[in-house]
Design goal:
Elements (H helix, E strand, L loop, with lengths): L7 H27 L7 H14 L20 H24 L3
Length: 102
């Protein structure tokens, strides 16, 4: 039994799972920030805290404007992070398809 052999399909499934979950959480963050979700609410707080780690590498790319009393907030960092994770996932899938046998 060769425990360390991983198939191309299982590696692609892991990449797709990570990118899919990251995209879902970041999309939730974008929607909640757009409509000024209350950060004191349990679910909104959970989404904000769990997406912080996904945004850290890209935190200083855009300067974010302050949250207003009324009005919409566009989270440019989260939108940019969604594009970066999607592009990175496609790139990683291409590399897996090229380098992994079976």
């Amino acid at each position: 039994m060769d425990f360390y052999k991983v198939s191309k399909q299982s590696m692609a499934a892991m990449v797709n799972l990570f990118v899919g979950l990251a995209e879902l959480l970041l999309a939730l963050r974008v929607v909640l920030r757009f409509f000024n979700g209350n950060p004191d609410a349990t679910f909104v707080h959970w989404v904000y805290t769990n997406t912080q780690i996904l945004l850290e590498p890209l935190r200083n790319v855009f300067v974010s404007a302050g949250v207003t009393e009324r009005g919409w907030v566009v989270d440019y960092v989260a939108l940019f992070a969604m594009a970066v994770y999607l592009a990175g996932g496609y790139l990683l899938l291409g590399l897996i398809g090229r380098w992994v046998k079976k």
